[in-house]
Amino acid sequence: MNKRTVQFLFIILLLSACAGIDTPDEGPNQVATETPAESPLLLPADRVLIHSASYTIIVKNPTRALSELQRAVEAAGGFVDSASSWAGQGSGSSASLSANVPPASLPALSEAVDKIADEIQSQSVYVQNVTADILRLQRRHKELSRANDEILLFLVSKQNRTKLSTYRILQELLDTELRSVENQLESFAQQSKFAAFDVTINQPASQIKPIE
Prior knowledge:
Layout: H1 3-18, E1 49-58, H2 62-75, E2 79-88, E3 92-101, H3 106-116, E4 119-129, H4 131-156, H5 164-193, E5 195-202
Parallel strand pairs: 1-5
Antiparallel strand pairs: 1-4, 2-3, 3-5
Helix pairs in contact: 1-5, 2-3, 4-5
């Protein structure tokens, strides 16, 4: 049983324990709370896709190929997360590039890889539809927000203080899960804006000098 499942079961048990507390009648001293406006993340989602592309290529000069690919990424409106090159006796030289680029630029970058490479050892283009995952998280966020509002209404009331500590624990658990859901939604939003573009660059075996 994972941590999230344990937390969810704990929340259910706490709600059951608190079910016997009557909701106080609204009076002149009761503090009214307004339901906050929904985050832009919770607007109805269109079809959301996550793109990625990875290549392993052979070139005579990996360092020069790496520089050319960096320029191609920048020209496409992307940014390089990491780029490195190395060489070792008996192993030749190699390089690697990891970047985030606009999804629409992947075909052009694929052409750039084709021009730079002497040989393409492997290539993989991946598209994942995460619309259902986002809608599920949005529904969960709405449920948690509603529950959190009800707990806040209870906490600001001057009545029924017999189980305040239980309600505060429950609110902390709800806040933790709310942040987790929001982080997942934000991660999906960022991944849908930029595609992952990764290239591994190796030297031909014929150019690798044996160790003497």
